[in-house]
Specification:
- Belongs to the catalase family.
- InterPro entries: Catalase (IPR018028), Catalase_clade1/3 (IPR024711), Catalase_core (IPR011614), Catalase_immune_responsive (IPR010582), Catalase_sf (IPR020835).
- This is Catalase-like.
- Helix 3 (162-170) runs antiparallel to helix 4, helix 4 crosses helix 13 and helix 12 crosses helix 14.
- The protein is 28% helix and 15% strand.
- The longest helix is centred in the C-terminal third of the chain and has 18 residues, at 349-366.
- It has helices at 17-24, 57-67, 162-170, 181-190, 195-202, 249-253, 260-270, 286-291, 325-330, 349-366, 436-445, 448-462, 467-480, 482-493; strands at 80-89, 108-117, 132-140, 143-150, 216-225, 231-240, 276-285, 311-320.
- The chain folds into three domains: 2-67, Cytochrome C Oxidase, Chain J (Irregular), CATH 4.10.91; 80-376, Catalase HpII,  Chain A, domain 1 (Beta Barrel), CATH 2.40.180.10; 436-493, no CATH class.
- Bound molecules: protoporphyrin IX containing FE.
- Protoporphyrin IX containing FE binds at residues 74-77, 80, 114, 116, 133, 135, 148-150, 155, 160, 163, 219, 299, 333-334, 350, 353-354, 357-358, 361-362, 365.
């Protein structure tokens, strides 16, 4: 928005993008063409009875293309926004991880970030009470590395089979097409390991003030390797430099803008107010993993910060808006399986399922060549695959390079890797309903004000459930803390009306 200081100085870049566009050019940007490049001449052929519509290439193409504008929205995280920027290393961790993006203090790696709510449909509100996605694509010189995380440090389950049930229970009721709090509370009370995460969702974390005030967490703990082949484990925390801030349910209800978060993100970046985060890691050794009295890979839990304090690695800055939302944000495809040399996948069933099913989702949503779409291209490295053909864009389709392996004709060869992943012997916690961390969160990490808001939000939502699940919820809350249980039970009995957040 070079014209900020022009006569349009007081306009808002988010609302007036098109006016700014006009200011940049003295006249039309060029002659309209068909998509095959032929110039289009002005003609009233569309209204004249004396001209065959079929002869009007431009009109026929426009109408047919309009019919094909939509692609499937993401099955979850459909509503979101994104921006571009960079990650810059501020602390040396080469003794822990050899990945090229960490190779030197000061090194910058371009990134794309997409923020999203989990349950809203594509046209839904930014302000729903929900967890938020915080997905980062690092375009490293050794390929793309994706952290596909959330704004809560834990997930609802560690069992991949729970995921489709979670999505069905929390998204719209298939009969009424309405959000159904009866199914939400049924799911949550039948899968109590998810209550830890939902204390945050019903607490202040459930409606961020804006994306710049929202933290991100990898949740998964990645095995990483240094140049000597030694393994460590990293859990990523992405903490906003402007602090974590939230909206209360009441504040959110008073905002009518469905695109509130996305508008602020776009406006701030356009005005040069770039959101930034500090990226930290919790570092564990193999001994830490083996000797921990808990399962460090349990995604419904957090790794205690007092045992494994945060260590800074770098800054994340978003300084560029997408030029075209569909091209740059709707088409971006994240996959936890996008890993780079030195960073490996978490050895859990949940991570393995995510590796497979995000790629599957991208094949479905964007087609076989989704990694050749501009925003997904690992453009800082040469890609030499043995894949060929398929739904466009095939780009140069790997030109004339041999298309099978092994071959005797100088086709690409794998590189030698020191890391030899073995199946890890991880002790899984046989007791899934472990409420210790939820209790710790409720008692020690929430202020009394936040506890009161949490209870009010739970009561308001749980009131719309059935007595069976209300009873189950009150009993489970007792295991987290008697105070939580008693106050929720009192709230359910009281005859006060309340309005849910959007
Ligand atoms: C078995 C467990 C899970 C499955 C099968 C699953 C599946 C999916 C699918 C199919 C999508 C849509 C992908 C697309 O169309 O591009 C998605 C999006 C997403 N998921 Fe998951 N998910 C799981 C667990 C998780 C966990 C544990 C996290 C956080 C650590 C997470 C964070 C996200 C985020 C941030 C997005 C949005 C990505 C974007 O902005 O495009 N999911 N998930």
């Amino acid at each position: 928005f070079e014209n900020q200081n022009s006569s349009l100085g007081n306009y808002d870049p988010a609302t007036d993008q098109i006016v700014f566009f006009k200011e940049r050019y003295a006249g039309p940007v060029g002659v309209t063409t068909t998509s095959s490049g032929a110039p289009v001449s002005y003609s009233d052929a569309t209204v004249s009875l004396n001209t065959l519509l079929m002869d009007n290439e431009f009109l026929m193409e426009r109408l047919s293309h309009l019919n094909r504008e939509r692609i499937p929205e993401r099955v979850v995280h459909a509503k979101g926004g994104g921006a571009f920027g960079y990650f810059q290393v501020t602390r040396d961790i080469t003794h822990i991880c050899k990945a090229e993006m960490f190779s030197k203090i000061g090194k910058k790696t371009p990134v794309a970030v997409r923020f999203s709510s989990v349950l809203s449909e594509k046209g839904g509100s930014d302000l729903t009470r929900d967890a938020r996605g915080f997905a980062i694509k690092f375009y490293t010189q050794e390929g793309n590395f994706d952290i596909v995380g959330l704004n809560t440090p834990m997930f609802v389950s560690k069992d991949p089979l729970r995921f489709p049930n979670f999505v069905h229970a929390l998204k719209k009721n298939p009969s009424t097409n309405l959000r159904d709090l009866k199914t939400l509370w049924d799911f949550l009370t039948l899968n109590p390991e998810g209550l830890h995460m939902f204390l945050l969702v019903f607490g202040d974390r459930g409606i961020p003030a804006n994306y710049a005030n929202m933290p991100g967490f990898s949740i998964h703990t990645y095995p990483v390797e240094n140049k000597r082949g030694e393994l460590h484990f990293l859990n990523f925390h992405i903490i906003p430099d402007e602090g974590i801030k939230s909206l209360t349910s009441e504040q959110a209800r008073n905002i009518s803008d469905l695109d509130y978060h996305n508008r602020i993100l776009y406006r701030n970046i356009a005005n040069g107010k770039f959101p930034s985060w500090t990226i930290y890691v919790q570092v564990l050794t193999m001994d830490d993993v083996k000797n921990a009295p808990y399962d460090v890979f349990d995604t419904t839990k957090v790794i205690p910060l007092d045992k494994h304090p945060l260590q800074e690695v770098g800054k994340l800055v978003l300084d560029r808006n997408p030029k075209n939302f569909f091209a740059d944000v709707e088409q971006i495809g994240f996959c936890p399986g996008n890993l780079v040399p030195g960073i490996y996948g978490e050895p859990t069933k949940l991570f393995q399922a995510r590796r497979v099913f995000y790629r599957d989702a991208l094949f479905y949503r964007l087609g076989a060549n989704f990694n050749k779409i501009g925003v997904n291209c690992p453009y800082r490295t040469e890609t030499l695959t043995y894949n060929r053909d398929g739904a466009p864009p095939a780009k140069d389709n790997e030109k004339d390079i041999p298309n099978y392996y092994p071959n005797s004709f100088n086709g690409p060869v794998p590189y030698m890797n020191l890391y030899n992943p073995k199946v890890m012997d991880v002790i899984e916690n046989p007791e899934p309903n472990n409420f210790d961390q939820a209790s710790e969160l409720y008692i020690n990490q929430m202020t009394s004000g936040e506890r009161s808001r949490l209870i009010a939000n739970i009561v308001c939502s749980l009131k719309q459930s059935i007595p069976l699940t209300q009873k189950r919820a009150v009993e489970l809350f007792y295991k987290i803390h008697p105070d939580l249980s008693t106050r929720v039970a009192q709230g359910l009995k009281a005859n006060e009306t309340c309005t849910l957040s959007p």
